Amino acid sequence: MTVVRGISIVALSLFGAVAGAQQKIAFVDSRIIVERAPGAIAAQAALKKEGDELQARVQTWQDSLKAMVDAYEKAKATLPPATRTTREKAIQDKQADYAKRAEELDQQMQVRQQELSQPVMAQIREMLEEVRVEGGYTAILDVAASGVIVAMDKNLDLTEKVIGRLKPLPVAAKSDTSKAAGAKPAPAGLTKKPPTQ
């Protein structure tokens, strides 16, 4: 909801700056704009797909850890104390490693969400300004965030107009997540030299 708040702050600051002048004010509902923006829909779909892939990776780690713990629990009674201690330490190390990897993946998803939403939000801000200038509006308020407006002429609702001007945006390709996810880099190999003539 930071997106909605950002749009609202811009609209309200414009409103405060022109409070004494002749005003032509309209409004939008930024929640609807963000939900229905063509780029936002594609970005959310890409984010969900990538999130599902990462969740599958985390599930594999959890399954591996569970198998390790289950095998230890079955053999625990028959193991000598030194072996028990060694296996318990291995389990704890694996838990810590997986927790660290999961946290890194979570951070990657936050960065990715920002990467995907930034172009959409930039386009929304651009369209809001374009509509404001064309219509000669002093300010465009956001009813989604302000909550102060109790009644307003529906003809001043520019939500659909802004949505109608938004264009589908290409979804940015995802960056390589293997390094932060704990994968080891491939060893450097020999490269073939081009044939000499």
Would you write up a description of this structure?
This protein has helices at residues 2-17, 30-36, 38-75, 81-135, 143-146, 159-165, and strands at residues 25-28, 139-142. By secondary structure, it is mostly helical. It has one domain (2-16, 24-165). Helix 2 (30-36) packs parallel to helix 6, helix 3 (38-75) packs antiparallel against helix 4 (81-135) and helix 4 (81-135) packs across helix 6 (159-165). The longest helix is centred in the middle third of the chain and has 55 residues, at 81-135. It is rod-shaped and about 85 Å long. The relative contact order is 0.21.
Helix and strand element order: HEHHHEHH
Proportion of residues in β-strands = under 5%
End-to-end C-alpha gap: 63 Å
Main beta-sheet annotation:
2 strands, parallel
Keywords, separated by commas or semicolons:
disordered C terminus, two-stranded parallel sheet, mainly alpha, 197 residues, single chain, 2 strands
Summarize the structure.
With 197 residues, the protein is mainly alpha-helical. It has six helices and two strands. A two-stranded parallel ribbon has the order 1-2.
Topology:
Elements: H1 2-17, E1 25-28, H2 30-36, H3 38-75, H4 81-135, E2 139-142, H5 143-146, H6 159-165
Parallel strand pairs: 1-2
